[in-house]
Amino acid sequence: MRPLHRFLRTLRDDLDAAHRHDPAARSLLEVALAYPGVHAIWVYRLAHHMWAIPLLRLPARLVSQAARAATGIEIHPGARIGERLFIDHGMGVVIGETAEVGDDVVLFHGATLGGRSMKRGKRHPTLGDRVVVGAGAKILGPVWLGDDVQVGANAVVITDVPTGAVAVGVPAKIRRRGTQVPFDVEVDDPAIYI
């Protein structure tokens, strides 16, 4: 009974994360029925469990591709995703095979956690907890983003980003929160730097 309870709790946590992060969400039922980011995450969770069994790797890829066709979001079943990931809008989001995503992460549409190499091994990014990745941002290669990092819209991140920093631009420049923000406003939107 415990695995079923844990599975149901995870599904509920995914719903709650989307409802909490999206001010347009009116109810958990609306989120469950109409949010492609939630659907993609749920299918990923199934495909990821299948991926752990070598004989089910091909079916896992097929399941993930069906989710991609339905949602416009591609999550490789080999990726490691923490709890309460929220993918807002979702269209065009790509999460590669060796990507690792922490807890309470938010990805906006068009975000890519991609590779820069065709070699086997770790080739996708690792994101800490509470990371926010803006629309169209690309995080490429086996880079590490610390906890509480914010990545601005359309930024291209190819180097590590320390905990609590903001990355904006092409290629992304790292800025510490509070050091270059006019009028001492609290940063909650990386677009303030663009």
Automatic annotation (TrEMBL):
Gene3D superfamilies: Hexapeptide repeat proteins, serine acetyltransferase, domain 1. It catalyses: L-serine + acetyl-CoA = O-acetyl-L-serine + CoA. Keywords: Acyltransferase, Amino-acid biosynthesis, Cysteine biosynthesis, Repeat, Transferase. Its EC number is 2.3.1.30. Pfam families: Hexapep. It is an enzyme of class 2 (transferase). Pathway: Amino-acid biosynthesis; L-cysteine biosynthesis; L-cysteine from L-serine: step 1/2. The keyword Repeat applies. One of its GO terms (molecular function) is serine O-acetyltransferase activity. Belongs to the transferase hexapeptide repeat family. This is Serine acetyltransferase. It comes from Cellulomonas avistercoris. The gene is cysE.
